[in-house]
Amino acid sequence: MGDLTAPVRIERYRNIRIPVRRGFELDCDIVRPVTTERVPVILCVFPFDKDGNVRHRDAGGDQRQIRRDRRRRSNFYGRRGYAQVFLSLRGTGDSGGAYDHMGPGMIEDIYDAIEWLAKQPWCDGQAATFGTSFFSMPIKLVAQLKPPSLKAIFAPFGTDDQYRRRCSTAASSISNFTIGGTRTRSAGPAWTARSVRA
């Protein structure tokens, strides 16, 4: 896998089902190099349908170009000896379950997906995650659970506590904001995201 000038054949598997502890399945696409070697996996999670993410990422853009770009990114990792997985979160795309924005169910599902992928015969048992902005936020929460197979995360530009990042608990920081062009005053809620989770 080390020779980047040698041609590498890439296989794409669409709509693979990953079972999770809550009794339903998540939908994913797997892109991996054709090799007899077992390879590590890079997981990318989508809060939208994994297919819709390709369609909507660049509204008004050339959809064929967007698909070619995604294929190129997959080839980038495949040529370097990694499998890449594009996973639709619960309640999105063809994944089962109800959408659970940053909730415990979503986090458990990703944990289960990481461990399921690491046990596949083509995987060497090592998993990493890749994602920015929202795509990175649930990954940071999953990492706190320490899945045994998760060896690395790339998760910039996202938070693990949306309430503290968006609203803050200090009333002064949210006392003046605009909603729909109307000036609004707020003292802020008396609870914090941490107290709700307990």
Task: Walk me through what this model shows.
- The chain has 198 residues and is of the alpha/beta class.
- The protein has helices spanning 50-56, 63-79, 104-118, 137-144, 162-166, 171-174, 193-197, and strands spanning 10-19, 25-33, 39-46, 83-88, 123-130, 150-154, 176-179, 182-185.
- It folds into two domains: 10-160, 3-Layer(aba) Sandwich (Rossmann fold); 162-198, no CATH class.
- Strands 1-2-4-3-5-6 form a six-stranded mixed beta sheet.
- The longest helix is centred in the middle third of the chain and has 17 residues, at 63-79.
- It starts with 9 loop residues before the first strand and ends with a helix.
Summarize it:
The chain has 198 residues and is an alpha/beta fold.
Write the layout of secondary structure elements.
Blueprint: E1 10-19, E2 25-33, E3 39-46, H1 50-56, H2 63-79, E4 83-88, H3 104-118, E5 123-130, H4 137-144, E6 150-154, H5 162-166, H6 171-174, E7 176-179, E8 182-185, H7 193-197
Parallel strand pairs: 3-4, 3-5, 5-6
Antiparallel strand pairs: 1-2, 2-4, 7-8
List keywords for this structure.
198 residues, alpha/beta, Rossmann fold, 2 domains, 6-stranded mixed sheet, two-stranded antiparallel sheet, 7 helices, 8 strands, disordered C terminus
Strand % is 25-35%
Give the CA-based shape.
globular
Q: Strand order of the main beta sheet, please?
A: 1-2-4-3-5-6
Poorly predicted parts: 53-59, 170-198
Q: Sketch the major β-sheet.
A: 6 strands, mixed
The count of DSSP E runs of length 2 or more, i.e. the number of strands, is: 8
Q: List the total number of helices.
A: 7
- What is the terminal-to-terminal distance? 46 Å
Q: Give the CATH H-level superfamily of the largest domain.
A: Alpha/Beta hydrolase fold, catalytic domain
Q: Give the CATH topology of the largest domain.
A: Rossmann fold
Helix coverage percent of residues? Answer: 25-40%
SSE series: EEEHHEHEHEHHEEH
Please tell me how large the radius of gyration is. Answer: 19 Å
Question: According to CATH, what is the class of the largest domain?
Answer: Alpha Beta
Could you tell me the mean pLDDT? Answer: 76
The count of domains is 2
The class by helix and strand makeup works out as: alpha/beta
CATH architecture of the largest domain: 3-Layer(aba) Sandwich
